[in-house]
Amino acid sequence: MPVNEFAEFELTKEFRDRFQQALDEHDGDFVYTSLEEVNPVDITSLLYEFSSEESKYVLDLLSLQVQSQIIKDMDSDARKNFLSIYSSEELTAIVNLLDSDDAADILNELPIKTSEEIIANLDSDLKLQVIDLLRYDENVAGGLMAKELIKAHWNWTVVECIEEIRKQAESVTKLYAVWVVDENERLLGRVALQELILSDSKTLIKDIYDDDIVSVETYMEDREVAEIMRKYDLESVPVVNVQGQLVGRITIDDVVDVISEQAEEERQLMSGITEDVEEDDSLWKNVRARLPWLLIGIFGGMLSARFMGFFEHELAKVTAIAFFVPLIQATGGNVGIQSSGLVVQSLVSPGYVEEGIGKRLVKVFSVALLNGLLLSLIVLGSTYLLFSNHQLSLIVSFALFCVVLFSSFVGTITPMIINRLGFNPALASGPFITTTSDLLGLTIYFLTVQVLI
Q1: What CATH fold (topology level) applies to the domain 151-257?
Q2: DSSP-based three-state secondary structure for 27
Q3: CATH number attached to the domain at 281-452
Q4: CA distance 104 to 146
Q5: Which residues contact 209 (CB under 8 A, 6 or more apart)?
Q6: Any alpha helices (H) in 153-221, and if so which ranges?
Q7: Rounded to whole angstroms, how far apart are CA atoms 305 and 442?
Q8: What share of residues in the chain are helix, strand, coil (percent, to 5)?
Q9: CA 336, CA 432: separation in Å to the nearest integer?
């Protein structure tokens, strides 16, 4: 069924409860009828609500083609647990219907014994492709690519190339172009489908192919591949080995997961979570992922408290000084996070480095200067209205101005340094910047108090 003919699906509590009742009663007719016209992607989301045994009961009622699509779309961790209740024979039937890259991903998640049993019984063509893919690490282009593609030798005619497309049409479901190789299988270029259709049937491929193409090597990291496809707006990119031979291709849907995982990793780092973790993971894994940055935050808070003790005399003279400590700390933290967040986002662009750090710092300083002036003027007027103390108003507004400048500088330069050291610059955001800005803000504030009182 074409994608646009799938019925619209919404997972409501009422439907989930009714579906659970059907599962409890083994009402296969209701289960099948409910899902008959539902997109496999939506069925995958639905199955997360039920146990592995219940989900398998549902899949057994559906066609093998739909089963393979659902299992392919499953989250890796959930799929690993789910497939443990399948026999090798059942898994072999499912894997035989997948593209080589998806088949290799699933086999990598299975126990070695099960994986070898499945490989031994795969269709001959798929077996060879999967064995080749399993040689590569999953985080490089070789582990990301699919072996299914259409290639044409440069001395073929257009009619021979079209005949090859017809032969491979069943196994190559996503056809964006035909890759051109020489007699040694080295990649030369590509021929657009439109060019093939418009050319005379006796025209040689070498006369119409485009040699201006972008390719990636098998050992290239998946994040680099994703960046190349984003930069050049590619739907598909060929993969070559160290000899320049065409060995596979990567399509845009293959890198979507890479981009999503990268964004999730950076989001967690910026939130102060040190490893990949989800809410339904084990209690200890959740604690372990969150505890390090929380400890750093506590340590920073204790340092702040100790630091304030050094200025006990000033606090005793003007108790209202203590009222503005949260304002100073919160503003410094917010400015630092804003600055670091923008830098982390910009660091993914190669042009960021090419523009030069000096130019960036000048712009950051200008923005911080203007923000600092506006905020300090607002605080100056508000503090005077609330406390009618001219000296206190000057101290708080001047300290806030300095905090904005310094926090902006720290928030900008820290991710740059971390990135230069080879670490993920997202580490510089969130709790790290907040704690640093709190200490920096207190230092500036109380030094200002000491000088001006």
Answers
A1: CBS-domain (3.10.580)
A2: coil
A3: 1.10.357.20
A4: 9
A5: 154, 180, 188, 189, 190, 191
A6: 158-168, 193-198
A7: 10
A8: 65, 10, 25
A9: 10
What are the extents of the domains in the chain?
A: 3-135, 151-257, 281-452
Residue 101's nearest CA partner among 147, 140, 168 is 147
User: Smallest Cα–Cα separation from 440: which of 419, 420, 413, 416?
Assistant: 413
Cβ(427)–Cβ(269) below 8 Å: yes
Distances (CA, A) of 445 to 101, 242, 282, 381, 430: 58, 59, 43, 18, 22
Query: CB count, 10 Å around CB of 335?
Result: 27
> Degrees (nearest 5) of the Cα angle 35, 40, 43?
55
Q: Which pLDDT score is estimated for 450?
A: 77
CB-based contact 404:375 (threshold 8 Å): yes
3-state secondary structure of 178: strand
Indicate the SS3 state at residue 173.
Answer: coil
Please state, in angstroms and as integers, the Cα–Cα distance from residue 262 to each residue in 23, 85, 154, 250, following that order: 37, 31, 38, 18
pLDDT of residue 3: 44
Q: Which amino acid is at 269?
A: L
Q: What is the spatial distance between Cα 439 and Cα 342, in angstroms, rounded to a whole number?
A: 22
Number of H helices and number of E strands within the chain? 22, 6
Contact by Cβ (8 Å): 131, 159? no
Q: What is the DSSP letter of 180?
A: E
Q: Which amino acid is at 282?
A: S
Of the candidates 225, 231, 217, 223, the one whose C-alpha atom is nearest the C-alpha of residue 251 is 225
**100: amino acid identity, one letter:** S
Burial 60-72 (b: 16+ CB within 10 A, else e): eebeeebbbbbbb
Give, in order, the Cα–Cα distances in Å from 191 to each of 179, 236, 247, 253: 6, 13, 17, 21
Evaluate whether the domain defined by 3-135 bears CATH number 1.25.60.10.
yes
* Amino acid identity, position 163: E
Q: How high is the mean pLDDT in each 10-residue block of the chain (453 residues)?
A: 61 90 93 91 91 94 94 88 93 94 93 94 93 92 92 93 83 82 94 89 92 94 89 91 94 83 67 57 64 69 71 68 83 83 68 58 84 91 85 87 88 81 68 76 82 71
**DSSP string covering 233-294, please?**
T-SEEEEE-TT-BEEEEEEHHHHHHHHHHHHHHHHHHHHT--S---TTS-HHHHHHHHHHHH
Q: Is 111 helix (H, G, I), strand (E, B) or coil?
A: coil
CA 207 to the chain's CA centroid: 41
The answer to whether the beta carbons of residues 91 and 114 sit under 8 Å apart is yes
